[in-house]
Amino acid sequence: MKKNINRNIQTLCFGFVLMFMVVSCNKWLDVRPSNQFDEQEQFQTAQGYIDVLVGTYQSMNDEATYGAELSFRFVDVLAQLYANKSNSNTDYYGLSARYAYTEANDTRHSPRTVIENLWAKQYNSIAQLNYLLKHMDTQPAELSERDYRLIKGEALALRGFLHFDLLRLFAPAYSEATANEPSIPYVTEFTVSPSDVLTVAEILERIETDMLAGIALQEEMQNIDQIAGNQGATVIGAELFYMFRQNRMNYWAAKALLARMYLYAGDKVNAKIYADEVINSGWFHFSQISGRNYDERDERSNIIYTSEHIFSLHHSRLNDVADDFFKTNALEPEGRDLFNTQSVLNGIYETTVDGLGSDIRSSLASPSRWSAHSNSAVYSKKYYSDHSTNVKQRLIPLIRLPEMYYIAAESATSLAEAREYLNVVREARNIAVPFTAENLPGEAALQDELFKEYRKEYYAEGQLWYFYKRFGYASLQNSVYFGAMNAVYTLPIPDTEIEFNPDYQ
């Protein structure tokens, strides 16, 4: 009976998310579901195909996934990035203090609820892509060659991206010992029937296949228009589809994801090849040090460094998110808030270390990307915006340029080469002291500096947890958990999936 119920629920979920229409010119991801579902009508025009693809990006803005949990909330709570989560009166206490993944309570941030919703929403987005790809098995007459290649290329690469994060969360970190362990389903069909559970190695092969196919299809569309240049755009219709490429799983984003994936799989040769290609593409640039503007009330502010975005999501209601979790006014902190203490942040950004106090990422820098209500409650301003037309402050970054330098450094053939990559980022962040053979002498020092960089660069962006897991850290910085970490790096498969999929039984 439970299996039938689960199938019916999945069928309903799929039906409700499939139809989307663009309703805004200068916010291409502002979409709303249609009141009726007509499969034949949906695919009569190129705009119909575009709407379904755009709808997938919009579904990724759901709080359950990249709209919160997989960017600044759940995965960063797991990584112990927020100092207040050790308090039993706060949201996520069951996760940060005990990693109690199966605990259920009355809050919407019950560990079990968060994990089940994350799984369901992620596969829901994958279902939308498979629905779209089903209608593109042969090139439809409604689509030009250019549209066909771009839409299908994005869809395939995005499918790989979504599966990769599921793998990183719900399967053990890749190694020779875990390569053949069962992990998750890789869903490529639009169906309510359960898909086979594949091994870690098999999932990585499927991701690679989708990413390479997506890259090949987008070969003719390597150009990237900077988000900042599109601010205030009034273009309507299909032409809007060719704008805001940084908000899409574009050609370079697919290559960047492959660099991330190859590093995860231990293939440093390919990881470095793809990271270098993105670095040398010329399309992405570090945010300027001089003239930087972090005033959330200013239309010109760029707190989130958009010129570095290889792939980010446009979230029209991001200001509401900031109000909810990163206090934008002087009210007292609440249990749902995500903040840190000044002393912890000083440690993260090494403000007392000679030569590092000038780091523009630091909470002590001026202008500052932080909002200090007191020394006990300091909030990141990455998602702040008090200006309605500032499209640069409506973005959740998923892949940024610094990571390509970190991947290249970790994959470098020599320590000297690794130092060169890290020094580029160091200089871009206004740190005048370069790495040398004296202050970065060996592999252990390189890993330690990479850890520090991921923690500094990706605060409230959801990447540090994966770094910890990949290296199997036995303890985490600023943690209030003292159990065995190897037992908590892999999330449990939700009960609803275990009941539905015979491969888990």
Automatic annotation (TrEMBL):
One Pfam assignment: SusD_RagB
Cellular compartments annotated: Cell outer membrane
Keyword Membrane in annotation: yes
Domain RagB/SusD: 365-488
Entry superkingdom: Bacteria
Chief location category: membrane
InterPro entries xrefs: SusD-like_N, SusD_RagB_dom, TPR-like_helical_dom_sf
Record domain SusD-like N-terminal: where: 27-217
Keyword Cell wall biogenesis/degradation part of the UniProt annotation: no
Record keywords: Cell outer membrane, Membrane, Signal
Family per similarity comment: Belongs to the SusD family.
Name the UniProt record assigns to this protein: RagB/SusD family nutrient uptake outer membrane protein
Organism this protein belongs to: Parapedobacter deserti
